[in-house]
Each structure stands twice: as structure tokens, then as C-alpha cells.
Amino acid sequence: MIHAVLMVGGAGTRFWPRSRRRSPKYLLPIVGDKNMLEQTVERIEPLIPPERIRCITSASQAPGIRAALPRLPAENVVGEPMPRDSAACVGLGAVIVHHADPDAVILCMPGDNLIAQAEEFRATVEAAAEIAESGKIVTFGIKPPAPETRFGYIHRGDPIPARADAAAFEVKRFTEKPDRETAEKMLESGDYYWNSGNFVWRADTILEAMAKYAPDLYAAMERIRPALGTDRAAEVIEREYEGLRKISIDYAVMEKADDVAVIEAKFDWDDVGSWTALERHVRQDDAGNTVIGKGLLRDSAGNIVSTTDDHLVATVGLDDCIIVHTPDATLVCPKDRANDVKELVQQLKDKGLDEYL
């Protein structure tokens, strides 16, 4: 059976001031009427029922996720006591699922990606699951429409058998975020995909890979295993997490593993990484402005405006800016500095302005 492990971590700092500790990005309706996490669950539910969907999140945010997803069993929302990056998240999810179902295949994915074609996505998951049954680690590759420096890349190799409607390949190597010139060469070659961070693997396969390439993380997960399903679980998880190193699953396993396949995504995908993502999904006015809420933009073009609570944002002669209004904080920045919002949030922390985090 296919299980799902949703990686629901981080506060989405590039979406400040809408995204906060108490209302992280994945619990906000960034695009559409429903929050990002609920959209993710609805996308996979026809294939994977709620009892086989687990969310791995921070302990502080687990109550909010349980409230947002009441159809998931409460115990399926698992709180990490401290952030330890994606390798620990993957390991914890894998050992929990393997404890419940030793033969499980796992769809492991972020809880806040935007995927438009739900049926195509589920078909890709099923095709990937068939490949994963053979013991391969399968990742979803996004065919890049343009050179992009904010994603890692996957270099595909020889084709491998898959469903007739699926294109799957051996993986030659993973490449971390390239510079612009390298990204352009990758695009021209036609042999590279964006790394979406969506994976399908057998639970035992990923645990075996962790035992081989990240034995310290694997050992911690095996020490957690006996406590699963008992009233000691939270205590043991916290104790083990204190000693875990922070490392991504890409660095810990994926870049080292030698039996990895990539399946080409047949669906539109967006990681919705910053406010500029809204331009790709929200209708713009004749001047190229993207407005969510009430906006009056005079002689202004190419702006992104998000406002709440009937608050009107008005501009005159302003181009290519982001304006986000919330009841207690307002962001104004040029669009080409959108990624710097993350550093602004760090500055808030450094100055002790925790009430705005």
C-alpha cells in the first residue's frame, strides 16, 4: 500500500508578514481559497486515505495542523521537538510508516507545493510506486521551462521501464543550485530536471540507504522505533533529536545513492517560494499588477499587492514592488529583492522583535 509522509516544516519566512510562527505558510491560502496543506491532502486523498497520511512538523505547529486537518488521525501529525532539516524528517516518517506497515511504499513530499493537475500527479505517483517496488529510490523531475538558479538539478541517464504514459530514467547525478551560466547549459542539453523534492520509495529502501550513507541518523531512528505507539514516544524522539546533525536528505542520501530513478512530471509544479510566485497563479490587471484584496493602483505597473481585513492599498507611480499589509506589519520591497525577506525576518529575531515573528 502507498502511504504519504508530508514534510511540513519551516515558517515560510519569505512570505512574511503573512507567514508567522502562529500561522505558517502552509496553513495560509497563498494561492486559492484553501490553505496549502489542505490542498496537498485533497490532491492525494483519492489515492491515499487519511489514515495512511502522516504529517511531520514542528511540535509547536502540530496542534494547528490537527485543527486544520481533522479528518487525519491525531496521532498521524507528529511533532519534531527541534528543527533538524529534511533528513531527520524523512527518517522519522520512514520508521513510523515501516513500524506500521513493513511493506509500505511512501510518497514523501513537501506539504506546500502547488500542483495544478491532481489526476496527473496521482498517476505519476502510481507509476513511481511501481518502480519503487523494485527497490529504487524515485524522485520527480520537473522539466525546466527556463534557466533557474534557485533549484537543484537532476541529470538523467538511460531510460528505464515504466508505465506506457510515464517517462523514467536512471539518475546520473544531483547538482546543487547552479549559477546562471550553468543553468542555461543544463537547459540547452535537455537532460536535466529541476529537483522537486518529491520522492517515492519503499520504507525499507530509504531506511537501508540511511543505514549505508547516514548511519548516525539511521541509528537514532532505530532507537526511536521501540517507543513508537507508546507513551514514551515523545520523550524518546526529543532525546534522540538533541544529538542529531542538521542535514538535508539530498546531502545525506540522494547525492550518494546509486540506485535512483527520476520520473518526468506530467503536471505543473511550483514550490511557491516567495511573493513573486503569485504572478504565476493570480490574474493580473492590464498593467501587470497582481492584487489580492483591495487595491487602487494609479500609474503603477508590475506590482504585487496582498492585503487583508478590507484594508485598501493605494499606489501612485510605483512599479515592480511588493506590498503586503497585515494588521500589525506591512512589507514594501522591490520584486527583485523578494528573497531578501528571509534575511529581514532574521533581523527581526536579532533585534528581539518576537511579536512580529
Brief description of this entry?
By secondary structure, the protein is of the alpha/beta class.
Describe the protein in words.
The chain is of the alpha/beta class and 357 residues long. It has two domains: 2-270, Spore Coat Polysaccharide Biosynthesis Protein SpsA, Chain A (Alpha-Beta Complex), CATH 3.90.550; 275-356, no CATH class. The protein contains ten helices and 17 strands. The protein has helices at 36-44, 62-68, 85-100, 118-132, 180-189, 203-213, 215-224, 233-242, 249-254, 341-350, and strands at residues 2-8, 53-58, 77-80, 105-110, 114-115, 137-142, 153-160, 168-175, 192-202, 260-264, 269-270, 290-292, 294-298, 304-306, 312-316, 321-325, 330-334. It has a five-stranded mixed β-barrel. It has a four-stranded mixed beta sheet with strand order 12-14-16-17, with no helix packed on it. Helix 3 packs across helix 7 (215-224).
Feature tags:
Spore Coat Polysaccharide Biosynthesis Protein SpsA, Chain A; alpha/beta; 5-stranded mixed barrel; 357 residues; 10 helices
CA-CA gap between termini:
40 Å
Q: Provide the number of structural domains.
A: 2
Class by SSE composition: alpha/beta
- Report low-confidence residues grouped into runs of 5 or more: none
- What is the total tally of β strands? 17
Q: Taking strands numbered 1, 2, ... along the chain, how are they ordered across the largest sheet? A: 6-9-7-8-10
Order of helices and strands: EHEHEHEEHEEEHEHHHHEEEEEEEEH
Provide mean pLDDT, rounded.
95
CATH class of the largest domain: Alpha Beta
Radius of gyration: 21 Å
Number of helices: 10
- Assembly type of the chains comes to single chain
- Overall form: globular
Helix amount, in percent?
25-40%
CATH topology of the largest domain: Spore Coat Polysaccharide Biosynthesis Protein SpsA, Chain A
